[in-house]
Amino acid sequence: MIKRVTWKMQQVPYGSVDRDRPLIRVPFTRLAVVTVSLPLVGLGACIALALLYHYNDATYTHCQVGNKLASILHSLAAISLTPERYIWRFSIGLHSAPRFLVAWGYLRFYRGHFSWRLSELLSGLTFLFAFGENVGLLLLTYVSSTETYRLHKSGFIMFIVCSLVHMLLTCRLWSLIVKVSFSSDEMKSYWCKLRLFLSNCCCCLVAGYFYWRHNTYFYTLFAVCEYLVVLTNMAFHMTAYWDFGGKEVMVATPPEGKRF
């Protein structure tokens, strides 16, 4: 059984004095745009700098296969050399905290919509895989391929696997939500999520094929597919723009008597 309830991202009781008013109050739509823009701009800057100033390193691969485009998994320069590594680490580190916050917000959102035990279990698994996706991204970011390649590769695989499972579970939960929803934003969000998930899966499969062929031409196409995987992943998370469009993220001090 699915129940419809009104859920707010954060409810804070306010006092009558100035010190009990919100310290920070940000529309979620603005937070979503900034959060997704950080890795998007950071990745674009890193690739551009790597190809302009470190082309040989950017197109180098550990298996000595020729390459014409910087690969996220194997490139030594795209996110490993100076100043690329600092740009990438800054953008990912700064955007990771809102990602954890949004994952927790979705968990509350789903549990506010469902009373069916299996759906509550799915919402919990969705949160865990969203958490694992973010951890995998941090791991592949802060452990570069030039430092510990196997750990960097493990972070990349963790990111991809957790991302795909998270998107699959999210689409399943939203398929249940839209069955009883009359909201155009929720319908739009669901169909965008589904299309982006299928596109991400196709890009992963094609990238795997190109990687398996493993020559200069196909390895360059593998790098292109890597970018498409990352971009469709970012776009999938951007659908939170519609999911929490009318909500705000607030930091506030509790009223007297509520303080610890």
Automatic annotation (TrEMBL):
Domain called CWH43-like N-terminal: residue spans: 28-245
GO biological process per UniProt = GPI anchor biosynthetic process
Q: Where are the transmembrane segments?
A: 31-53, 121-143, 155-174, 194-212, 218-236
Q: Where in the cell is it found?
A: Golgi apparatus membrane
The membrane-topology field of this record reads: Multi-pass membrane protein
Q: What is its main location?
A: Golgi
A GO cellular component annotation in the UniProt record: endoplasmic reticulum membrane
The yes or no answer to whether the keyword Glycoprotein is present is no
- Give the UniProt keywords, A-Z: Golgi apparatus, GPI-anchor biosynthesis, Membrane, Transmembrane, Transmembrane helix
Function (record text): Involved in the fatty acid remodeling steps of GPI-anchor maturation where the unsaturated acyl chain at sn-2 of inositol phosphate is replaced by a saturated stearoyl chain. May catalyze the second step of the fatty acid remodeling, by reacylating a lyso-GPI intermediate at sn-2 of inositol phosphate by a saturated chain. The fatty acid remodeling steps is critical for the integration of GPI-APs into lipid rafts.
According to its UniProt record, which protein family does this protein belong to? Belongs to the PGAP2 family.
Protein known as = Acyltransferase PGAP2
